[in-house]
Specification:
Elements lengths: L1 H44 L5 H15 L2 H9 L2 H4 L2 H25 L4 E9 L5 E8 L8 E10 L2 E9 L2 E2 H15 L4 H18 L1
Antiparallel strand pairs: 1-2, 2-3, 3-4, 4-5
Helix pairs in contact: 1-2, 3-5, 3-6, 5-7
């Protein structure tokens, strides 16, 4: 009986230690999002920068905070494996351009709002979900819930998805890319062509 109680007690200690470690990792993930969002806000408020310089600095923050190659491969799905090396290289370049053009505009649109981190949840496969809100001081009712999905990378973290108001950006884009490829009989080139058209539209609108 004593051995059984001792084993249970030992197991509880291990579980407690693992829980404490996860909590610490989660807090570090929250700090990471807080730091990244603060840097984005500071960059947006720096009116001494011209548009091109601002976009370049913003993209450096994106590359530092997001695992763009992982996201790019995830959203294209299985066709990545059948694409040629040249197609893969071009796709990654186009994906990066799309991220820069799409999110730099959103970042300017949300210049008066602030990310407020509220907590975290530990997920499977080392995923950490940091919970936050995009808060509008002028209209609190318009606050938007945002969940950041991160993975530990060395001594830091990388964002692999952003869930805005319950909608996963990665899965939404995966569905869009899949639809393009299916409409064109599985052609990877059709996706590249569609991405080029989208980039052209975004550049002309900016």
């Amino acid at each position: 009986m004593k051995k059984f109680i001792g084993a249970i007690f030992g197991l509880l200690i291990v579980i407690s230690a693992a829980h404490a470690k996860n909590n610490e990792l989660g807090r570090h993930a929250q700090d990471f999002i807080n730091s990244l969002s603060s840097q984005v806000a500071e960059l947006n408020q720096n009116r001494s920068l011209d548009k091109i310089t601002r976009q370049q600095k913003f993209m450096k923050l994106v590359e530092r905070g997001f695992d763009l190659p992982w996201i790019a491969k995830f959203v294209v799905g299985r066709p990545w494996k059948t694409a040629s090396p040249d197609q893969q290289k071009e796709y990654l370049s186009l994906f990066k351009n799309l991220v820069e053009l799409t999110y730099s505009k959103r970042f300017i649109d949300y210049s008066q709002q602030k990310i407020i981190v509220s907590g975290h949840k530990m997920g499977k496969r080392k995923f950490i979900f940091v919970e936050s809100q995009l808060a509008d001081p002028k209209n609190p009712k318009a606050n938007i819930n945002i969940v950041w999905r991160l993975v530990p990378k060395g001594n830091s973290f990388k964002i692999v998805d952003v869930v805005i108001a319950g909608i996963s950006m990665a899965i939404t884009q995966r569905n869009e890319y899949s639809a393009v490829i299916k409409r064109n009989n599985g052609s990877f080139e059709s996706l590249l062509a569609a991405m080029k058209v989208q980039i052209k539209k975004l550049r002309s609108a900016s």
